[in-house]
Design goal:
mainly alpha
Length: 148
């Protein structure tokens, strides 16, 4: 158990570090960049680490021995947090698209003709909102399984 918990904590720290790296290498919408997308160097490894963390967290939650009532409370809390962070992610993305001048299809947009993954939008996919959504989603699913 201790080894599994250490692994989960290590992966949690790595996830936070990679979120930070993606944020640093994502260009601010107020700056023009022609240097390519350095954030891609960290975006895909971050997603892989997210997956490893989700698996480790899933197993760690599976080792918890709680009452059915406790799992129901966890279910309700994780459902609330998942919905809250989905809303926060949605507003974050809309605000950034607005700051960029629109979607890649709008000619006046800073990301015109770029794919959705570009130097300005890396944080759409890897940020604290998506990370917490993943954690609460795993917790929600595990609590559903444990309530039965």
């Amino acid at each position: 158990m201790k080894g599994r918990l250490r692994r989960t904590v290590l992966l949690l720290i790595l996830c936070i570090f990679f979120i930070y790296l993606v944020d640093i290498f994502t260009i601010n919408p107020n700056v023009y960049s022609g240097n390519g997308n350095l954030g891609l160097l960290f975006l895909f490894p971050a997603l892989i680490i997210f997956i490893f963390f989700a698996h480790s967290f899933w197993v760690t939650l599976g080792n918890l021995h709680l009452s059915s009532k406790s799992w129901k409370v966890i279910f309700l809390g994780s459902l609330f947090l998942l919905l809250l962070f989905c809303f926060l992610e949605y507003t974050f993305v809309l605000q950034l698209i607005d700051t960029l001048g629109g979607t890649p299809k709008i000619e006046t947009s800073k990301i015109y003709r770029y794919p959705w993954v570009n130097q300005y939008t890396n944080t759409f996919f890897v940020n604290y909102f998506t990370f917490i959504m993943m954690i609460t989603g795993v917790t929600l699913l595990r609590s559903i399984m444990r309530m039965k």
